[in-house]
Each structure stands twice: as structure tokens, then as C-alpha cells.
């Protein structure tokens, strides 16, 4: 099988490191460059311990990599939104397809972007090209996509839980609540007192209450599933652990349904999905079952009368299904490869 | 000042240990017995390292302690509900006042108790005597109480957050959601694989979804604050840390109000409260600020229009304000002592 | 390539789970049975999420597996020593080669075994067959071995650090000290209060001081490297983390040598080893660099004069290079397969 | 009882925060100033939640505090060594006694200081005044001391373990090894990637191997106990926890002795010490038993023949007995107060 050349920008962040490792081991990918702010001149072997040809690759400065991107089929951007906004058009015009892991191209409404990201929105023509890279929703569109907006970590967990039940008409579209918690790698690599061990170990707290930038992303996508606008409240919490997102989502039943029926509906929705599993109960969904893998694990409970409360619990690894793993899944779909390629050797970190 | 004789049942659990230490150091309390399933014949000094007269006290079997309870002003029960149900009447008839830290006497509706605790409810006459031991709500009634139902840990965090805003008419009584997480000491001392280090470290998960026994307790109390029944969904999560409860509560504004107005209302409600502090924002509420103390820290954010979403975050130490510390606070009120007595030498575990 | 049939006993412990997953994904292995105390009748897919043919395999009771072992080339025993002692002869007489991960066959001196394991030693004829499964020492012997004693976790870390420098005559054989610490998975699956989250989180302590059963194992092997008996003190500590062993070993220089010379000597010793890496300094050796992989990372510092102190630091994942990973490495050597087969897709859990 | 005025420099570090809290609650101390790099103009109540008069005190800039120090009986310096070296003479000449918590005045040999601290040594006349503030060794000298060098955290743990057995002639003075591990607060407040949560959680590693500045401090003090120079190797490790130091020390018996005899000798040495406890075995020494308190817990095991190995395990809270708590203990002795004053309300953080 022919290999395809790919490059990574933002390779020295935690997501970029995961992406580099996944692509270094991908059976069909050939890493052509890994670009980042640090490690320039060091090899992937030295930094990440990767063996084989990808291990010999040296980290390069981003500008040098842009020049090389014209020879790549796809570039993956694990960069902040403002960097992605600048890079993506330059790469696209060189004929290189782009998977962007930042929030730069996820929001179709530019005003929402500017409100939550405090940065001018991407030009509408560019935004119009962007395909939201949630394979469980958009598999067909991904094959032809030139610009993929890889979903946020919280949105991935929330949408996979709520989306199918909204689409099937089980849930009211008002009063959705997503209460979620993430491990500290979700905040990226930090040299700050706030993210020091002593300030976080044993702690638990919220951040960006009622103003988290993933709120409009979740709303937008749930609206697509529901076929109507939804009303959403989202709260993010910081867990004193390395990896993992657990989202507890609340909605109301539009019509009477038992937990068993909702579980069946979810199982039907994900019957052919390689990376989504529906547990028999929400208590069976836990971070240790998914951390280290590209899987999402879901479970649901409800009060069965119409108007009754539905509680959905979903768990993912924020660096994998919530970022780098999903990006590789999208890459596979863009290039017509087996969807699980490069992802099926991942293993849970448990025990 | 004269000391008053007190006794502890269930002294060998985590809550019982906290209670024993607090009472051993209380300036007005004289520990007359500490009863429990283990350590019988060992001294409090040997087990807990306490100095002074309380250190010399030997742990006794519960039956021996019942006989002695007649000479005590108050007995504190850190026992399971079914044990408390059996003990409390025997102690009361010996003239000993009772603070029960289990859920045995918290629910005024016996059917609710039976539904959630899977055990016959206490006799109505006994239940009628029970005063719910949340000083911020019930201070006056506690002075004369003979049987105090010390609040649950999750209810303490949730009620202190939502109660005043319901009482002041800021919040709708429907659609309340309390999404909370507790450290592992909240589950008590366990010799099970499920609570082993390897099964919990790095994990995060829900438990007892839509069937947690603290749900009716929170509802009942919030109903008292609101002056009308409330509709509540409560979800408990298990945090991979030792201590602390953080509750994120969701409600809707009955009338327009800003976060600043809600903060002011909370500050007014707690102006004279020694153990409740209102933070300027929910993001400032975190476990590290309260663990080790009897304090509750609160913060609120909202969408200011009528019908807008309110998010309240509250944090306590589950073993202190959520159990043993609040029991001592109740004891102080029952005996007419300074409310902070025996609690003001506690310190945050941070750094 | 033809697959070879293999079986696992003790498949429901933490080591057995790792072993099952490694073999389920091994390109040349065909899992014929997984036997253990629990999960009998469940599939490997249900328990571990493994896809493919191995996922369809059902856990069986140990006795049923013994009958089947005659059709297997190798059985791997992740069982307690007393179980391994009973199982191994029965399997060997059925023509099945054995890799035992317990301490049953590691000590060549039966009296040492009885002293440290409090159990009658294996019969000398059986013991005489056992090959100590440290590939870096015994690669040649493993090809023909019928009974392999897979090394202990602490011994692996200690021997890989001290062995080559003893063999090369750099170190005195008296006064060796190994001070090591292990994550909690090293203690296996436990349903005891002692290993509960609350009793271990944030703690650090020693155990079995001057009486740990890995002491004679380390001594015996270091003696082989040194060509003379060694004198060793070993102390084990329990770290409040899931995985990883870090060993800090102390010795004295027999002749003057710099840290750079010792580092070179170690690098020469491990030049062709796929799973041992020598870091430029002991401070660069840390658990996060090895956990999740089959690698051992080593570093050395010293006071360069003759008689000067040498400090060696080595790190492994206790469940992989310290147990299941090394067992697969041994299996590969026994069957003439690529030594890294089934192990090179492992990845560090960092970040 | 008259209160005495005191001041703290370096009040915004982790040790300075502990010191401020201890002194704010000390029954005889009156905090006159708290000086530090941050929080200038904020009150101790705002920052630390302290009630009472000390809570009203505002943080000041260090220079303003120097002027005020002339009205204080004692200033406590929780500052880096180079700051302490500059501050101490200025305070002493104003008639203010000094307890310095840095390493500036601990080493009597200026060349050792310069070698390990990379900074010019204090003038000999100043150094000559400094009393090493280990009450268990130097209680008498502390009463008159004008300049107290508060011991390092690792030295406190190591010296309390090895000192008495060296003094009683049980141990050889050669070949001492101290292998110790500290929680992350021992590194102070850090805004660096190296000390971020993601880089430390789940990790364990050494640092400053064979070059840690506590090595000459431990040697110097053990030499005083032994009455002869000792030879010492010391290795520090970083534990992924907040607080606590556990030291495992290795020595050889000069004459035959059992563990019971060594335990008795240690108990005799510490019979009247309020803050040192000898456990019946080294395995009973653990961080959870001491963290939160000013106590040191010790235990010993040995091979009883002459020349046999002795293993001593000792545990302290690095911020309390290892820093701020011991400073208050020294303060009490300097001012003729009860030695446990301000320290006996501390409680273990367990459970």
C-alpha cells in the first residue's frame, strides 16, 4: 500500500505529541514534517522514543514546514486558534488538505466565534469549506473535505451522548445541561503557578462558567441533530487527574420512554460505529474504561414519563477521541483508509 | 466553665474518627465514651494520637456504651441508619439527647425513607421530634432539640447554595439540578475491591443515578426554603481524592437579576454566619479552599434575564461541614455554647 | 506465518489481564484459553474490550484449562507461587512449556525459597530445569527452556542497573543497597481496607523491611553477574500511584571511574538490547518515561575515586517489563520469534 | 500573659504561609508584620482566612518590614538563602532576633556552603552566632540564641533517625546512606512547566543526585552526634503528593544489637520529646500518620550481628516539622514559652 505524506503543526504540545505518535505508527501515513516551537533539530526518536523512519524525522520550525506542506496530502494543526487561522489558508492554497484541531473553524456563525474566542472570525468563504469532523455525524462529508474542523473535547463527549436522542425526537430541545469535567492535559502544556502540581492536586473546581467557548459548539451541533435550535447550559470542571473527560448531560423526555428504550436507541445509532459503546447503565461509564483509547463510552438513565428527566453520562480520553485520535479517524476517512487504521492498537491504561 | 459529658457511637469509621478528635479537643466537652466495632480496649491516644484526658479514654463495645449514655448530655451517632434507628430511642429514653449523623431521621416522609433507604421508617412520634441540624436554617430550633438529624454531606452543599435564593424568590422551583462530586472518604471505610486504590485512582464516575438517597433530603429542605415543593434532579460523582464535595447547582431565574445581585443576596443571607462565605465568582470556589475546615464556600453566575440560567457552585469538606464538623456546630447550639467552639482551630489543608 | 497456541492461567489478576491483552494482540500467538477465578463464561471482548478472534474466547475454570494445555505450546502462569508449584509439573508432563510469573521457580536454593515464601520448595529436578527469564542475561538459554521463571518486578529493575557494572568489575560486591518504590498495581488486585484508596492516597511507606522475598532473587542474580556472592540490602516502598517501579541502587567503585565511563559501560552492555536505554544522568530517569512500555530506563552518577559511591537509578513499568511484558519477551525468545513482537506497539502513558 | 511582637519575611511562599497561620493562632505571639513579594496591601484574613487581630494585618513590602523589625523580638525568614544572608545582619543590628528557615546559616564550614549553594558564605562572625535549631539536639542553646538556623526538611528527618543511634555508639560512622522522598510543596511555589501537574502526577524520580545541598548539613550534624566525621550519601526523590518526607536510612551496627534494643534506645532518647514518636517497626511509619502535624515518626529494623545492616525509617510533614512547625518550636524555646505552644492544635490530615 502506498504511503501518504502528512505533516503536523503544533507538534510540541500535548495534543501534538499524541498526534505525532499516532501518525508515526500509522500503517499508511508517512510523516513528512513535525513543526513546533521547541525541539527544533531534535528527532522524534529522541523526544518521543519512536522507532522506525518517523523516529529519524527532525522537528522543524513552523515556517520551514509551511514550505514543505505543498508536498503533503494533509496537514494537521494542533495549534491555537489564531495560529490555525493564519496557517490554514496558506496550506490550502498550496493544495494541502487541513485538519485543524483548534476551535478556529468549528463555529459556523462568525459572531459566535468572535464573542467566545475574542478574535476576528475566519472569512466566510473559508468557513464555508470547513467540515465538522465528527465521523459519527459527518462520515460522508469527510471523504471530500479539504478543511476539517476537528471537534473540541467537551463537544465530542456531549454530542455523542445527546445527539442521537435529540435526532430521534426523544428529548426536548430546551433546558439541556452539560456538566462535564476534564483532566489537566485538557489545558495543554503550562508553565504557570495556576497549573502547578501543588495548586491542583486534590482540588476540583469550575472554570469559565457560562462563558466557555465550547458552549456554542455544542449548541450548534446539537441543533443539527435536533433539526431545531437547542438551549444549552455547559459547565466545565477541572479534575485532578491527567486524562479523561466525563460529561453528565441532563435533558427532558419529549415523550414517555424507559431507560432500556433509550439504551436501545443509542445502541441502534452506534451499531456500526467502531469507537462508541453504549453501557447498560450510566454508573458503568467511567474514565478508567476509556483513557488510553479512542473510544467513547455512554450510558443513560431516566424517569420514564413524558417530561421526565434524562441523565446521560459519556466518557472519552480528551487527548484521543477528544483530539488527536479523532483527528486520525478523520484523516482515515478523508483518505479512504480503514477508519480504525492507526487507532486499533491503542489500549486502555487500566489497570 | 463546666464540662459536659458526651459520647460517640460509630467511633471507628472515618466520620467517627473526626468526631472523636473534634470532641477530644473541644474546650467544653468531656468525652465519656467512644464506642465502635474495632479498637475496643485501645485508647484514643493510641489510635488517634490525642493528648490529654480524652487520649486516655478506651474504646468500648456499643452495648457497654448504651448503659453509660444515661450519664451523658448528648450522644453522637456516626452509625449506619439501621443502627441509629435502633440506638436513638434507647438513648432518648435514658434522657440522653442525640445527634444522629446517619440519614435515619432526616426525611419527614416515612415513605420516602423506605423507598430510598430500603428499611422501615422510624415511628412517626420519634420522627416528629427530629430537628434537621442545619444551623443556617434551624438555629433557633436546635437549642431545645432532643434529637437532631445531622444533614447529609451533599445536602449541606446543595442547600446552602440554593436555599437562600429560593427563599428570596429569585429562583423557579422547577427544574433544579444538583450535579455534585465527592472525595472517597464520603463512602466511608471500605474493604472492597471497588474502593481499592487501583480501581479509583485517576477515575471519575457517577453512582446511584436518579436513586441517590440524598435526593429526597435535598428536595425536602429546598421545599422549606421555597415555601413550595421543588422539582430536583441530583447526580453524585466519585472524585479520586480523599476529601471534599463540590456541588454545581442549576436553576432558572424567576425574575431578572444579575450575578452581582445574587451574590449580594447570598452575602446578606450569610452575613452573620461563621461558616459560610460567598466568593465573588463560582470559579473562585474550589475544594482546596475548604478541605480541612468547617466552612462552606459559595459562588454564583447567571444569565440575567428572567428565565435565565443560574449556576451555583458550593464546596465543603465532606467529613467536617458535611458530617462531624456540622455535628459539633449543632452540639454547640444545643448546649448554648459558642457556635464556633471546637471548630475554630481547624485549618485548611492547603498548601 | 503460523500461529502458535498459548494459554494463560491467573488471567483475572492485573498481571493476567495485561498478559491476556498482549497475547490477544500478538501477531503470532493464538490464545487457546484464559483461565482464572472470575469471569468464567464471559468473553475477553466483554471483559477487556479486545477485538478479533481472541475477543471471542471465553474465560474458563483452571481445571478445564489444564486439560486443554496439552494442545498448547506454552502456558503462562500469572498465579500465586503455591498455585504455580502445583500447576507447572502437570503442564510440563503434558508437553506444554511454561512461563511462570510467580516466584516459585526463581530461587535456585530451596532453603532460601522456604525461608522467604513460607512454603515447601519445588523438587530439585524441577528447579534444575528452570531458566531465569531475564533476556538481557539469559537470551541463549531461553530458546530451549521448557520452564521459565519470569523475574520479579523489583529484581528486573535492580539487576538491569547493577548487573553489568558488577560483571565488568566496576563495583564492589559488598554493601549493595537497593532502595525501590512501586505503584500499587504491584500488590495485585486487593479487596482489603489496607489497599483502599483512602488508606493509600498521599501516603508513602516501606513494607517487609529486611524480609522481602525479592531480596534473595536479586542477590542470586547479581552474584551470577559478579561471579561471586554479593551482600545486598533491599527495601521496598509503596508509592501512591498505579504503575511503575523506580529503584535507586547504591554500590562502591572497586576502581576509580567517572560517571561518564560508567554510562559508557552500561551503553555498551545494552547496545543491542531493544528494551533497555541508558539516560545521560540519573535525574533523567523517571516513571512517566517508561510507564505503559516494556522499557527499562537507567542512569548513573558516582564519586569517581576508588571506593567512591555509585548511585544507579532504574525505572520500569511493573506490569510490563516487570511482569507481563517481560513474559512476552521470553515467549518470543522461546519460540524463535522477533524479540519485540507484540511489544513494539506499546506506548508510554505520558502525557 | 504578655504577647510578644514577631514578624515574618517571605510570607507568600508555602512555608511562609504555614508560618503566618501558625503565628496568627499562637496564644502568645503578636504578628507585627508579614512581608513578601505578593499580596502587599491585602489582609491575612483575605489571603489565608485567618480570624482575629492577625487577620487584620496587611502584607507589606520587605523594605517597610525591615524598618518595623526593630520593634519585634524575633523575625522569621522564610526567604531564599541569598535574601536571608542580606536580611539577617540588618535585623540583628536592630536588636531583633532571627530564625532563618533557609540554608544560609546551617553549615559551619563556609567552603561547604559555597560549594553547595553557589553563593559567598556568610561572614564567620555571623556564622559563629548561629545555633542549629533542632530542639531535640540543641534545646539549651536555643534559649539564648540570637540567630537560629532552622534545619532543612530532609536533614530533620534523617538526623532524628540516625542521630541518637550514632551518639549511643550503635552505628558505624562510615557508609551512611539516606534515601529520602518529598512531596512537591518541598520545592516551593513554582510557575514552571517542570512542576506542572501533568509533568509530576504519577511520576517518581530523583534530583540533584550526589550534589544536594542538604548532604553537608546532614553530615555535619550526624558528625556532632557521633563525635566523629561521618561518611554519607544522600539521595532526594520527588513524590507525586503534596506534603511529607519519608527517609529510609541505612547504616551498619558497630556491635551486635536487636531491632528491639535499637527501638528501646530510640525511645529512651526521645522519652521527653513532645514531637518524636518511635513506632514498633519501620513498616508502621508512613506519611499519612504525620502529615498535618509537627511530629516525627520513626522505626527501625536490623540484622542483629555486629556489622549487620540497620534500616531506619522516619517521616515528617516537610512544611511543619520540616520547616514552619519546627521554627515555631524554636521560637517557643527562644522566648521561654511552652515548647508545644501554637503547635498542639495541629491535626493529622488523615483520614
Shape of chain A: globular
SSE order of chain A, one letter for each helix or strand: EHEHHEHEHEHHEHEHEHEHEEHEEEH
Oligomer: homotetramer
Q: Which chain pair shows the most residues in contact?
A: A-B, 44 and 44 residues
Order of the strands making up the biggest sheet of chain A: 3-2-1-4-5-7-6
Please provide the count of β strands of chain A. Answer: 14
Number of helices of chain A: 13
- Structural class, from helix and strand content of chain A? alpha/beta
Low-confidence stretches of chain A: none
Largest sheet of chain A: 7 strands, parallel
How confident overall, as mean pLDDT of chain A? 97
Terminal CA distance of chain A reads 36 Å
Strand content of chain A: 15-25%
Helix content of chain A: 25-40%
The gyration radius over C-alpha positions of chain A equals 20 Å
What would your notes on this structure say?
- The structure is a homotetramer of 351-residue chains.
- With 351 residues, chain A is an alpha/beta fold.
- Chain A is built from 13 helices and 14 strands.
- A seven-stranded parallel beta sheet of chain A has the order 3-2-1-4-5-7-6, sandwiched between helices. Chain A has a seven-stranded mixed beta sheet with strand order 9-10-8-11-14-13-12.
- In chain A, helix 8 links the parallel strand 6 (130-132) and strand 7.
- The longest helix of chain A has 15 residues, at 153-167.
- Chain A is globular and about 60 Å long.
- Chain A starts with a strand and ends in a 17-residue tail after the last helix.
- The relative contact order of chain A is 0.14.
- The mean pLDDT of chain A is 97.
- Chains B and C meet through helix 10 of B and helix 10 of C.
